[in-house]
Amino acid sequence: MPADSPFVPAAHEPVLVLLEQDAHGLVRPRVADPDVPHLRVTDQGVTRGDGLFETALAVADEAGTLRMRKLRAHLGRLASSATALRLPAPDAAAWEAAVDAGLRAVEAASRPAPGARLSVRLTATRGPEATPGTAPHPTAWVLLTPVPAPDEAERRAGVRVLLLDRGIDSTAPEHAPWLLTGAKTLSYAVNMAALRHARAHGADDVIFTSSDGFLLEGPTSTVLIARHDPDGRRRLLTPLRQKGILAGTSQAVVFAAAHAAGWRLGYGPLIPADLEDVDGIWLASSVRGVLPVRAVDGRETPVDPTLTARLQAWLDADGDPGHHVSGDPVTSDA
Amino acid sequence: MPADSPFVPAAHEPVLVLLEQDAHGLVRPRVADPDVPHLRVTDQGVTRGDGLFETALAVADEAGTLRMRKLRAHLGRLASSATALRLPAPDAAAWEAAVDAGLRAVEAASRPAPGARLSVRLTATRGPEATPGTAPHPTAWVLLTPVPAPDEAERRAGVRVLLLDRGIDSTAPEHAPWLLTGAKTLSYAVNMAALRHARAHGADDVIFTSSDGFLLEGPTSTVLIARHDPDGRRRLLTPLRQKGILAGTSQAVVFAAAHAAGWRLGYGPLIPADLEDVDGIWLASSVRGVLPVRAVDGRETPVDPTLTARLQAWLDADGDPGHHVSGDPVTSDA
């Protein structure tokens, strides 16, 4: 077909949307075939892991219309990552147009059933290596991939995690912005190696700790902990972001809903002992949702299906996480 | 042109060699055009920085024949990186065939003058994301890019470095193989951010320190230090590899030659104070060579052009680094 013919995706196949600059420098979405190569071997996304990403969930409503969840939160964190990387990524309007083009292309190709789910991955790299001194020309795209319904058996059973040292001292991020600890970069080799290590040692996932002993995050998730305070009130806890972790968009939504439901919140500097004597521990992420932990380093921990369902319902309700994404931590008074 | 026509590179342009599997599963080199896309957006090299690389130097001899320097050392380190990443990368013979195909293609296209230089970058990624359970199918290529003659003005003047905290505790690598500190992975976002930070703060390059205060390495180089021992003998020092750094192939060559010339060697656990009262400090890497440091955190340090020339000549002589690449550290007795 001629190069300028629009690509028409097949039903139930991934859809790719490239963000391309037109002759006037405006960024335009173009639906393209994900099964053919679009990246050069000199792209700094692959030569240096130099770029950023966000992975979101889109769900079809009763009419089969797809909508990306937590749009504002994901685009806000993407902009923060771009600032940390000094990467001139497309702006929010360009990303929204690309996501919209992708969702509409999927609808046209697949007529999604109500509840049908897609992962929506936004990626921007520093672009092909260029002559020193010339402006970088980022490469940016959105990839939409059908994902199956949540694995209810896994959600009931829970996952086994290992606590693995992330090697980073928790005080480093405060004075060392080049460590990019708050940015969601493409340099995930250590995250992937940690997951392989866990799977080779009888576990399913990982909670990282700092070298000075604080709980951090999962390789692709945020940690949530529920417990009762001494006065009997529920409290939802998550590790302190300033210790060098990503601001979790799912954690922010669940926290906002828990607060509205009268729960206390705590962003603690947490240690492994804080995983004991709890009502539940979860790994929260956009596509997998709220996944209960059933064992930490081989020690069983309670799995409460009712609590899991409640947290997942809060996430699915997709309340605007608002100021929780960029707000200050609430100190645990426990 | 038909898809099976061999690509013929233009003179003085980069040459790409893809390592492709034939119908019998054998890996074959194919010369290809680096200016067209060859990677999918789902390649885990870009989605997760999940892959490895080596950057070597090739130089033309008097007859214009190109040879890659430190071939054994680079292929040895590449194999170590593949093991650390559990990545089924092509074997040494396949890489050698691809490098050879690339060098011959450059010779045919450009008839290199004696001393002409190329950077030779070997890259392997975990390949496109596949269905869980299916074997990964790595993507691998060699990119050969002409590089100018060494910048003699820079080599005389030296570079200004900042000491920047790498955030990693030096004891972590011993018990945490998932940190991949000895592997040369594609996840270099922090290395690039550190270089940007240095350049935004009046410096040219970086020497990383561990969070517990040990000297590590540059973002793309190994640190060498020359000094006189109390008895007047020369000593060449480099930070202890076990503290979480790459085994430097250039450092290994220079060390082997220095040893042969009667210098003492030391792989020290070094601290910033070890950068004081020295005869010289260098950043060593394959393409840039041995680059003297003229200032550390704004404090001037001696630049000795005679010493630099000697170290560079040792590197250019390309002696077999042999056991120094994988051997045990020699404890400094200073």
Written description of the protein model:
Chain A has 334 residues and is an alpha+beta fold. Chain A has 2 domains: 15-147, D-amino Acid Aminotransferase, Chain A, domain 1, CATH 3.30.470.10; 152-324, D-amino Acid Aminotransferase, subunit A, domain 2 (D-amino Acid Aminotransferase, Chain A, domain 2), CATH 3.20.10.10. Helix content of chain A is 25%, strand content 27%. Chain A contains 8 helices and 14 strands. In chain A, strands 7, 8, 9, 10, 11, 12, 13 and 14 form an 8-stranded mixed sheet that branches. The first copy, chain A, has a 6-stranded antiparallel sheet with strand order 2-1-6-5-3-4. In chain A, strand 9 and strand 10 (234-239) form a beta hairpin. In chain A, helix 7 packs across helix 8 (305-317). Chain A is globular, with a radius of gyration of 20 Å. Mean pLDDT of chain A is 91; it is low at 322-334. Chains A and B meet through helix 1, strand 5, helix 5 and helix 6 of A and helix 1, strand 5, helix 5 and helix 6 of B.
